[in-house]
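Subject: complex prediction, re-run

Hi both,

The earlier run crashed halfway through, so I resubmitted it with identical inputs.
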Amino acid sequence: MSSPPVAVAVSGLSKRFERGNVQALETIDLDVRPGEFVSLIGPSGCGKSTLLRIIGDLIQPSEGTVQVNGKPAHQARIDRDYGIVFQDAVLYDWRTVARNISLPLELAGVDRRRRDERVREMLELVELTGFEKHHPWQLSGGMQQRVSIARALSFSPALLLMDEPFGALDEMTRERLNNELLQIWQETGSTVVFVTHSIAESVFLSTRVVVMSARPGRIAGIVEIDLPQPRGPETRESPRFAEHITEVRRLLRKGHADEAIEGETEAPLYVAEEGL
Amino acid sequence: MSSVGVAAIPRGTLGRRVGRKLTDWLPAAGVLAGGILLWEGLVRGLEIERFLLPAPSAIVDTLWERRSELFDAGVYTFSEALGGFVIGCTLAVLAAIGLARFRRLARSLMPFAIAANAVPIIAFAPITNQWFGPLEKTSKMAIAAILVFFPVLVNTLRGLTSVRPSSIELMRSYAAGEVEIFRRVRLPNALPYIFSALKVATVLAMIGAIVGEYFVSSQEALGFQIKNSAALFQFELAWAAIVVASVLGILFYASVALVERLTMSWHPSTRGE
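This time it finished cleanly. Structure:
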């Protein structure tokens, strides 16, 4: 398999939620190259999570197309090209850590021996060796999220989609996991699309930061992050880091100003399908 | 491992867990023994009439004298309760699975299922007695089955449908189909709900069988024993039969609770308290 020139191609994408009559996204165009780490940042209600879910074929766009590695998003999902990590670790309580990590492999029909081997590698990667027999509720929030990342990487998906994965964690855990994620990204060479609320996090992690504005969700600007790799704690103290932060903040403010002029609509909520 | 901060929770051997349980139970056992002694003392001291309340010693004597008769009656009635429990719970779980698949249908039927929970279904016992034959076991199984059906249906459906949307999305992202999602997410998610309904159902099934027998039944039945001996002023025998019914009910409940523990060893609530 030769790697296609574009990992994710979003073109002319709009999303309208009929319920609440909300225009969540309007004419989004975005290309992500293979091996890139792209962050989506914006105020709540800017549709960044919706965009991530459309890329992952979990919701359908109203208009426009998404191509992943040259295939429609739906085909990419059927081919198991996505590894998804949500803000909440979404671990299955009835499965041990090891069996949570091996779940995607079980679904893909990978045999037992190969699964065990892969689980061991993944636990090593996220530094949780020795916890395979634990249940999710026996772990701290940060550890749960590391299991969730291990699970997303277990089947070596072409694309890693992360929806505010560290949003619920304290600042120190968050910075440590940021460092670990960068290491994993460099070791695996995967393509990452990462949704976040944190400017510092987006600048630290990304090769490009996509700044979005709200109501309707649009791309307000894209910032190329040219901080040298590998990045570490010293990266956060460099002047260039501060400059990038300022640039992202400026774009966020600009998007916010546009929004104030266009008036008010309800923030698009992600509508849950469950419940009676 | 210690560098990561969270230590493994010690699981403890079965023996240790049971040992801890025994000391936990001591106060409760003391209360039970004290209660029985107090009962015995009051009945003797105040010379309470035996039709009001026989002494525990008299009940125990009767239990022992009539043991084979009471044992047979217990087996007879328990088989009715168990039959009704199995039939009612199986149908309820199957119905819930069907309704979980067809949400729209579920939404229009649920109000009735919930209302049925508030109806004193036991009032139908004389009717089911006639439908299935007053002397047949099947008529008691029928009323027990109807009694357990609605709570098990409502709880199971709730368990199958109250799944976090993100855990379904995650399965879909792994290209899992509806059947896989059902088997690997909905069903395990519903297990705590199902088991709490099954535990209630054990009690309801015993009530259904015994009350069904109060109306008309074979002379072998426990309910018949209680009703008949009370009518004939054999209060010790009536009380002895009630003790048998209670012990059976508790054992029934405890065995479902044990199965729950074994199947849901992963659940935080099943760890030793």
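Chain B has ten helices and no strands.

- K.
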